[in-house]
Amino acid sequence: MADGDRRAFLKAGALAGVLTLAGCAGSGLRQPRGHVVVVGGGYGGATAAKYLRMWSARGVDVTLVERSPHFVSCPMSNLVISGNRSMADITLDYDRLQSHWGVRIVHDEVLAVDAVARSLRLAGGGDLRYDRLVLSPGIDFMWHEIPALDNAGAQASILHAWKAGAQTLALRRQLEAMPEGGVFVLSIPRAPYRCPPGPYERACLVADYCKRHKPRSKVVVLDANDEIVSKKGLFAKAWAELYPEIIEYRPQSELRDVDVATKTARLDFDQVRADVLNVIPPQRAADIAARSGLKLINQRWAEIDWLSMESSGTPGVHVLGDAIFPAPTMPKSGDVASQQAKLAAAAILRLLAGEQPDPAPLLMNTCYSFVDSRNAIHVAAVYRYDQASRVLQPVPGAGGVSSVRSELEGRIAAGWAQNIWADMLS
């Protein structure tokens, strides 16, 4: 597919997905009324809050509970680590959600959810009652699987930078301080985890930094998985052509523990010493999912009804984004969380109006990754609800992948970020 045709396809596909979801929310229904509380102001939560107000013509009251006063994007944050973007480039505020859309913003933390009473308790004191609750809390780390890192002191030294913010800048400083000829070790957990192409993009951008500033340095990728789990051919080609002397990829290399003092990764049968050790830990749904009594698969991910994103066994609670057990081939990406938010918003408005959710929702995902400071690659997919499996399934032949890495892809990726941020917060 030519680049111009591909851009048109992606634009049309994204618009079709939004219109399909908007149609679920809209014409012909009784005007929905009620109060929806949204927990988590990331790609899923902020988008859900906005679209609940927009599609209900401001008829539904929405409260967004978010700890941080600012949204900091994980997508594009690897470019901050490599010195190609600043934190200001990936940091936005929630002002317009409140001033334009009338979303009430509460900067606080949820301690507990009472799904029977339909209320939640805030750390700052007081309770919030709701008619429907949207949980988009993201992920927490399974530190117990890396015993030496199961304390705050060690975590301040051996960084993950998998929640964009202070650690993003801290890892950038560690990379800048690494000696010429040093070794940057990146540990990747077993899938599923947030943003499956993200670690491989990070390897590329760290290698690009080394190529420009510390050309004798190495990037060692310790991957717990059997192979690259996302964009395998595209990343392998980029590594072979751009970084043959820099990136060393080791599959089936699951991290068991670390020696914090010596920055040594301990595997089953090997130890790897680093100058910079970047450990992405195993992940699960954020703590609030378990504290809310949601049904979890493998004690990690929330199980949901894909027609409404409603938690299985917990009526009135809808779960989005990284916290849920994924549909087949569906990544835990920002774009997916945004699309799930619209699916949930449409379903919630139908439910508040006394109707049933749309029986055939459709959504799509486009995922970009930079392989150096300018060139990017992508994959795209379309998902349709399957009545037999009761899950969103990939549509055969829909979507696509980059034919080559290119600066055009990089410009499109930068535009994608600006567009999706505007879609959720403007």
Classification by helices and strands: alpha/beta
- What profile does the largest beta sheet have? 5 strands, parallel
Strand order of the largest sheet: 5-2-1-9-23
User: Helical element count?
Assistant: 11
How many strands in all? 27
* Overall spatial form: globular
Report, as a whole number of angstroms, the end-to-end distance. Answer: 32 Å
Question: In terms of per-residue confidence, which ranges show pLDDT below 50 for 5 or more consecutive residues?
Answer: 1-27
Computed CA radius of gyration, to the nearest angstrom: 21 Å
Give the integer mean of the pLDDT values.
93
Q: What are the key terms here?
A:
426 residues; alpha/beta; five-stranded parallel beta sheet; 11 helices; disordered N terminus
Description:
The chain has 426 residues and is α/β, with parallel strands linked by helices. The chain contains 11 helices and 27 strands. The chain has helices spanning 3-25, 43-55, 77-81, 95-99, 152-157, 166-177, 198-213, 232-242, 287-291, 334-352, 407-425, and strands at 34-39, 60-65, 70-72, 91-93, 104-106, 110-114, 119-122, 127-129, 132-135, 139-141, 183-188, 218-223, 247-250, 257-259, 264-266, 271-273, 276-279, 283-285, 296-297, 301-302, 304-305, 310-311, 317-319, 362-370, 376-386, 391-394, 400-401. A 5-stranded parallel sheet has the order 5-2-1-9-23, with helices on one face. Strand 7 and strand 8 (127-129) form a beta hairpin. The longest helix has 23 residues, at 3-25. It is globular. It starts with a helix and ends with a helix. Mean pLDDT is 93; it is low at 1-27.
